[in-house]
Amino acid sequence: MTQRSLKVLSIALILTLFTVFLAACGAKSTKTTAPATTPAASDAKTTLPETLRIGFISANNNKTITGPEGWAQSKGYLESELKKYGVKEFKYFNFPNGPNLNEAITAGTLDVGIYGDTPAINGKAAGLKTRLINQTQINMNAWLVAKADGPKTLSDLKGKKVATSQGSYMSRYLTSLLKEQGLDKDVKILHLLPADGEAALSRGDIAAYAYPTGFGPLLLKKGYVAIDEAAKHPVLQGSSLTVVTEDYLAKNPQFPKLWNDLRTKAVKEIRENSEEFFKFYAEASGYPVDVVKASFKIEQWPVESSTPDGLKLIEETKKFLVEQGLAKKDFVITDWLVK
């Protein structure tokens, strides 16, 4: 082999070794600069306690939740979705009115409560350790019902007795209404649960009863008359709120979003299937479908967990309760609301 050939071979060998060296360095560089994986972060998963205890209001003592939450419950995904996060047992507790639900929260037997704004606000003002996670229903009507041959106007109630469920959104409506009409000193308000109102009316023990949704239209269907409605006084309408205990929230900060996402899904479905929803509500509540339809509109369940108008309605309720001394102390609604 000539000297020239040896020189060419040597240069080729050097170039080959240099190329291999660069490739090796490139591979090393790529390996070094690749983003580090964090198994702990990627594998992180929300975990809820195995038991979830839910309280709600059922004036007829029915066991099924009404509204969007009940719809999600009936369709199966309220439970199936939360089971993905570790919940194995769902305990549902129904109460005749809000103050009873507050007592259960105080006793530590509930994690979540769905009930009227008045008892929820009164409970918070009294030191009940809850946080507001949504305003599930707004603009709830109340009907001041009397016998067909009874009082015809509000002024006819002067010197008489009326009744409603104490501590409910209807009680706030009735108390406010009488005060607006200058009758608060001349009309006595008694505490009666809605289920006992008709008997008291028929006996003449009371001149009128302030009924909630369901009961109000049902009594009108029977021939009773409404001498007033909360719908005529927008700021006196009620809301239904969902609260979670501070203890449960502290241990499970992800819960409000999980719950509200399920509720939003349900609201969108009931807006697209209103007739089916009315039938579901009738079965869950025990009221005829026409009574359910007369009680509310689908739009009363907002898609959002809270709205400016809804929060304004809650604020008006709280303001009244504080001014009347019915709520023990004032507080800031937006501080109560889970962001």
From TrEMBL:
Protein name: PhnD/SsuA/transferrin family substrate-binding protein
Keyword Signal found: yes
Keywords: Signal
Matches recorded under SUPFAM superfamilies: Periplasmic binding protein-like II
Domain SsuA/THI5-like: 96-255
Domain of life: Bacteria
Keyword Phosphoprotein (UniProt): no
Pfam families per UniProt: NMT1
Residues annotated as signal peptide: 1-23
InterPro entries in the cross-refs: SsuA/THI5
Gene3D superfamilies: Periplasmic binding protein-like II
